[in-house]
Amino acid sequence: MHVQDIMTKNPACCVASASLQEVAQKMAECDCGEIPVVDAQKRPVGVVTDRDICIRAVAQGRDTGQTTADEIMSTPVYTVKPEDDLDECLRQMEAHNIRRVPVVDAKGVCCGIVAQADIATRASPDAAADVVRDISRAGSAPH
Fold first, then answer.
1. Tally of CB atoms within 10 A around 119
2. Global pTM?
3. Which domain holds residue 49?
4. Is 33 inside any structural domain?
5. Which of 17, 37, 86, 92 is the most exposed place for a label (fewest CB within 10 A)?
6. pLDDT digit of tens for each residue in the chain (143 aa)?
7. How many domains does the chain have?
8. Contacts for 26 with CB less than 8 Å, ≥ 6 apart
9. C-beta separation of 86 from 123 below 8 A
């Protein structure tokens, strides 16, 4: 199985100057917990997760209407390619303790995203159990 077989295509993305309120609204509209932050060529430069908004903005008393994505985004961005084997995607998620990974094409343009939910619903039960267990180890703070 390859990444392209389970990825969510054309994920919602934002630019670095987007307010956290705008990012959170996209998350609500798309029912997702991560928005890739992209440059003018649509290449990922970071990601904003629901956890980033909570921990790095709301818990700090920051104004979500004035704080921008680039101020709280998680970096570096770990990515996979559509043609990568799913096992490679799972290794990346486990190695970097991340629950979602953007998918980029040959030009580095964000063309998809793989989330734990994609793995749970489309991959083998063993793969799903392994990635959830490894990413959820004690003391971790994934993005």
1. 22
2. 0.86
3. 3-135
4. yes
5. 17
6. 999 999 999 999 999 999 999 999 999 999 999 999 999 999 999 999 999 999 999 999 999 999 999 999 999 999 999 999 999 999 999 899 899 999 999 999 999 999 988 888 876 666 666 666 666 664 445 55
7. 1
8. 12, 14, 32, 35
9. yes
